[in-house]
Amino acid sequence: MSEAEFTGSGQPAAAMAGSKSTGKYPLARFRPKLLDCLKDYTPEQLAKDAAAGVTVGVLALPLAIAFAIASGCSPTAGIWTAIVAGFIISLLGGSRVQIGGPTGAFIPIVFGIVSIYGFQNLMVATMIAGILLFVMGLTKMGVLIRFIPISVVIGFTNGIAVVIFMSQIKDFFGLQIPSMPAEFFERMETLWHYAGTMQSPTVIMSAISLAALILWNKRAGRWIPALGKIPGPLALLLVATGLQAAFSFPVETIGSKFGGIPRDIPALALPTFSLSTLNQLIQPAIAIALLGAIESLLSARVADAAIDDRHDPNQELMAQGLANVVAPLFGGFAATGAIARTSTNVRAGGRSPFSGIFHALALLLVVVVAAPAAVYVPLPALSAILMLVAWNMGEWHAFKELRRYTLPYRAILLSTFIVTVVFDLTLAVELGMILACLFYLYRMSELTQVERIPLEDYYGSGAISSSGEHRIAAYRVYGSLFFAAISKLETLLDEQDEPARVLILDMAKTVSLDTTGLDLLQTLHRTLDKRSAQLILCGLNTQPASLIERSGFAATLGPRGISHSLTDALLRAQLIIQSDPVGTEQTA
């Protein structure tokens, strides 16, 4: 292959060196969303972003600790994952409002890696996953997430909302559960078993916090306009923390639950690993990368709908990759975009990457400076905030509107929702995509039709003679002739009652042809050839004609096997019939 052919442009490679594009498939440019947001940025928006960042930062603290412990890691690892990865994802990402950090989706994967390989190898696997994510973004694989149907996105989002809501039942009612199982049915059984351990002070604080939050969001701005600028979650946290510090209510706090906040900044260091185990970490790293890509881009897509914006998926993947490479250097582990925290950021007023940056700085401030005050944050107030966030992030109206849509749409949405709640969000997305593909293939196969062309319509034109009438058969193929639709054409192979001398396929309405459809045409040609019959294809569009030509099937059919129109094909069929003495004699 020559250099000109290799570049795919018809120009020598040297001539392409100064071009912005380095070939037929150029790499994605590295341009963080933050640069676009700086153009029209105002002090008013800076204040909103700062308030939103502080709100999300305070909310992210117990989540980061809880996710780390559930994953078999130390609380410090979860905190510094949220700080470092959250900062990089917001600074360099492709979304205005994405909040990054450890998430519940990673718990089973991370726990399995730590159990088998240890925490040091988890950090190595995370860094490998980060490299994979960066390469995915650099090679523009981020746009593939746009192929996920809206039914999968809604089912996934509503399922996550239910999972978040259920995860807060323990803290909302103060149930004395030693450890909450991760599996759905065990979790429901545990909640039912410990229902009698409900703590009245916790229930009262949770209920008052939830009612106050709803009332604040609906009425505070009407009563006092200045209060409307303060996000409800932030106001609730400040008031609840102050009251808890003053009166020491008998409820769980961050201090009593997690034993305080570590204040030391970890030393920058590379994780230790051995070359003998490096090859064993490839598969876990791929799992982390794929799950991180799916969750982060789905989170960004959900956020787009909330703020009427469009994220850059390739830039987002590159930022996610860099975050997962750098976080382990500070003792962190796998991070991705978090739907719950991103939704909280949006509802708290965040509209630029500065809110995510403030979220990371707020976490850092809590760890370094305000750790003593953070221990007074009551978990009932946090559970009320997260419950309301879960309710607000769900698109519950989609369930009411299901009757307006088709059965495939309903099946995909409900299956994704149920599997997300009961089993696993990764499995839910995979199942939703498989169902979407299967329903799409079925729908496309239904659109493919093969109809017999009544040759009587052509008698008056003189296209064929009456003597050749029953020796010629013509069919028109509509739609796409691909692997899921070949059954529509296979019936022509079984017509043995009155085999035609010439079989014409009018493919002017055939928009595409795949290799399976091509194989069927070749099989049809061989079957006809064995009984000295001729196949003629006419009206080929660009894509089917290109495949037939490149495969060599056009040469196999010969010059009389392909025609530009049905009329021309009928004339050729008539000449074939007239030049066949055996066929003429049999007809006579």
Number of domains: 2
Report strand %: 5-15%
Question: Percent helix among the residues?
Answer: 55-70%
Shape: elongated
How many DSSP E strands?
Answer: 8
The computed structural class is: mainly alpha
Distance between the termini: 58 Å
Mean pLDDT, rounded to whole units? 83
Number of helices, counting only DSSP H or I runs of 4 residues or more: 29
Low-confidence stretches: 1-23, 459-469, 583-588
Query: Main sheet?
Result: 6 strands, mixed
Radius of gyration: 32 Å
Would you spell out the secondary-structure blueprint of this structure?
Blueprint: H1 3-7, H2 13-16, H3 33-37, H4 43-70, H5 75-92, E1 100-101, H6 107-117, H7 119-138, H8 150-167, H9 169-173, H10 184-193, H11 200-223, H12 232-247, H13 254-258, H14 275-278, H15 282-307, H16 313-326, E2 336-337, H17 339-347, H18 353-368, H19 371-374, H20 379-393, H21 397-400, H22 407-422, H23 425-447, E3 449-452, E4 472-481, H24 487-490, E5 502-506, E6 510-513, H25 515-530, E7 534-538, H26 542-551, H27 553-557, E8 562-563, H28 566-578, H29 581-587
Parallel strand pairs: 4-5, 4-6, 5-7, 7-8
Antiparallel strand pairs: 1-2, 3-4
Helix pairs in contact: 4-5, 4-17, 4-18, 5-16, 5-18, 6-7, 7-15, 7-16, 8-20, 8-22, 8-23, 11-12, 11-20, 15-16, 15-17, 17-20, 22-23
